[in-house]
Specification:
The protein is mainly beta. The chain has 2 helices and 14 strands, in the order αβββββββαβββββββ. 11% of the residues lie in helices and 28% in strands. Strands 3, 11, 12, 13 and 14 form a 5-stranded mixed sheet that branches. It has a 4-stranded mixed sheet with strand order 4-5-6-7, with no helix packed on it.
Amino acid sequence: MKKGKIFTIALLAFSASAFSQVIMGDAIGIAANKTSVLLEFANTNNKGIILPYVRTLPTTPAQGTLLLDAVNTAQARIRYYNGTSWIDMSGQNGNITSVMATQPALAETASEKFIIGATSTSANGAVVLESASKAMVLPTVTDVNNIPSPSPGMMVYVNKTGAKRLAVYNGERWSFWAAQ
C-alpha cells in the first residue's frame, strides 16, 4: 500500500472520530456552508463517487441506502431505499457482466463499516454518514462527458447552466435527475 493511501485512511479515521468534515481530493472543497457538511469531494470536474455493487439486495436496508443493483448483471440499475421499497434511479438497464467478473464475490460482515459523523450506527452499510443536521456534497462536474472512463455505480452532481442535476451511471448510460 502506498504511503499516501495509508495517510488518507488514517486521516479519514481521525476525522470521522472527531466528528469533523471529511473532504476528499483537496483541502478546500466547494461547499459554502461547511458546518452542514459531513463528506465533500473536491471540484475536480472529472471524478465521481462509486456506489457499492451488490449481488443480493439487503433485506433490512436503512432508509436512504444507495447502491448499484447487480443482482442481474445484464440489467444493472442504481437504486435507493426510501424506507418502504427500492426506487430505481437509472430508468434503464446497464450490462456490467464483464465488470462483475473482476469484482470479488466475498460476503461482507455487517458489523464492518466506516461511520462518519458518529461513533456508532444501527444502519448497515460499507460507509455510513450519520447525522441529523449534516449531509454529503457529491462530486461536482460541469458535464459528464468530462469523465474519461465512468465506472458503473458512479454518481455526480452536474453544475451546468440550465442543466443542474444529479447524474448516475449504470455501467452503460447516464441517467439524470433534475431539480423540480
